[in-house]
């Protein structure tokens, strides 16, 4: 909080003429989200200092029976005089003001209870130890739901979002059921995560998500948590996970990837940047690293004039001279084994990110095709719909668009209806016709809120736009099928939305069928993206009933989700290969 805002708070509190209370940390924390003593000046608060940071220190008192009530408290102070006055292990008594503090950087963050303007710090004894609560032994996070306020068919993904605010409702906590309540009930306390396994990559601040040795659901073969439906039929937001922040002693966390294991982490629970963090005392060390080998797809071409293989890959802003173009080509040649048709997204124009009015991407696509040809025996042709300059988002000046690469020896383009998203009609060597639609729906980038934020269900940025886009596709397919009910239609691309947001896909009901579902891929292995604590599926392929009734196969090739290092990835999305029969 900027100093000016704190001054304002102080002035407001002054006008309330606070009375002095004597209180325990448990009294200050209380069983609800907000403190019963908010705004009050409190004296004679006692506890043992468990940790120090650059902006304060943590005190903890003896455990209490009520698991809803935290016995830890963050004392905010940037005064070196205050920070130097206490040492970890000191039992102290102090006075201060109770504040439910919300970081001013984002109005969707939760408030957290802290003790401000500490005075009269008295050291009662030194060298005391506080035994950390061992998660998974003493208490375990819930495995299914995030918040009691995520009501609706799709749980935390229910549309419309933002039906209530945690801090306004100020319910008493249900830590056995909801993760936001669970972590809030441990706010400021010392905890240990035994046997942590990393479930994502580190972010740019070196923070990373883990789960520990406790019960977990929706665990995939790599060790991560997949966004899928829980046993109650509601999307499982992966509450059995926690983010590890920057170490309190200034050491640097190791870099992470999905499936790495580290030694036990001990630290304090602190809400910041939209999540309940554990701030470790010191950086953990890596104990094991998963096998970096990603097997290539087994779904190869079958020369029967009826079978078609389709790859789907969002290549993350690729221009003709992008450093990752050779890697994308190599993924397509070696891991995807050159599918007959590639549905590509995020192809930049011929001048890449340079904003010079160029919109054609034939140089980009030629370069990609040439790079694939140099590593395989396939020379792809391509087709694209050239967008209007500056209209389609992505990297500035790049004019990203979906495009097709196709193997002219396997399929020929019958027509290209020249619209976005690209609709194409194809013919196989035996003359069988089928249609594809390649799309890239609006990104979630802006307007979203964290899964542990104040608005419930959390804000899902641009979901209304994506719902409209799905409707447009559904109407188009409906029209096509009304003319030709047995048409083979394949719709694929980056939908930027999970199928667990059922409302968003309602227009597809009984019209288009997701290949993962048709091919019966285990739900926990359905993912193309790693974000925060979850592996999730933003990229999908749907088929019409004529295709669904024949044999459908799909494989997600985790070249990027399984990367050993966030920076060696070709793209942030995994590609997939689908094999269908069109006659
Ligand atoms: C704080 O503790 C001291 C010493 O025990 C006592 O004199 C004082 O009244 C207490 N303050 C409050 C507000 O209870
Ligand atoms: C929040 O709930 C607690 C416990 O019921 C209550 O003491 C407190 O006054 C409430 N705070 C607000 C701001 O509603
Ligand atoms: C300061 O702390 C001491 C020791 O706990 C207590 O006796 C005294 O009342 C406190 N004074 C104020 C003004 O809080
Ligand atoms: C606390 O422990 C340290 C080191 O173990 C020792 O130097 C110091 O004297 C102890 N302080 C007290 C008050 O016992
Ligand atoms: C969410 O709801 C709150 C309370 O109704 C409102 O103040 C806020 O503007 C809403 N946020 C968004 C992004 O709609
Ligand atoms: C993590 O990776 C970055 C490159 O992205 C590198 O600069 C940094 O040194 C690495 N950190 C550690 C601890 O290896
Ligand atoms: C891509 O094509 C352009 C123009 O044909 C050429 O100048 C450039 O070197 C090519 N880049 C790569 C990586 O092949
Ligand atoms: C790209 O298209 C332009 C205009 O149609 C054409 O002049 C140029 O030769 C094409 N370049 C490549 C590499 O296909
Ligand atoms: C490549 O595709 C275009 C249509 O996009 C077509 O005009 C051209 O003949 C094709 N070339 C080959 C070699 O198939």
What does this structure look like?
Among the domains are: 21-125, Nucleic acid-binding proteins (OB fold (Dihydrolipoamide Acetyltransferase, E2P), Beta Barrel); 133-288, no CATH class. With 583 residues, the chain is α+β, with helices and mostly antiparallel strands. It is built from eleven helices and 33 strands. The strands form eight sheets. It has a seven-stranded mixed sheet with strand order 7-9-16-17-14-11-10. A six-stranded mixed sheet has the order 21-22-20-19-33-32. A six-stranded mixed sheet has the order 23-24-25-27-31-28. Residues 320-321, 325, 363, 367 line the site of one 2-acetamido-2-deoxy-beta-D-glucopyranose (NAG). The site of one 2-acetamido-2-deoxy-beta-D-glucopyranose has 4 residues, from strand 21.
Cα-atom Rg, whole angstroms? Answer: 27 Å
**How much helicity do the residues have?**
10-25%
Oligomeric state of the chains present here? single chain
Give the N-terminus to C-terminus distance in angstroms.
64 Å
Mean pLDDT: 94
| SS content category | alpha+beta
Uncertain runs are 1-8
Shape: elongated
Q: What does the largest sheet look like?
A: 7 strands, mixed
Keywords: Signal
GO molecular function, one term: catalytic activity
Organism: Phanerochaete carnosa (strain HHB-10118-sp) (White-rot fungus)
Signal peptide: 1-22
Brief rundown of the structure:
With 583 residues, the chain is α+β, with helices and mostly antiparallel strands. 15% of the residues lie in helices and 30% in strands.
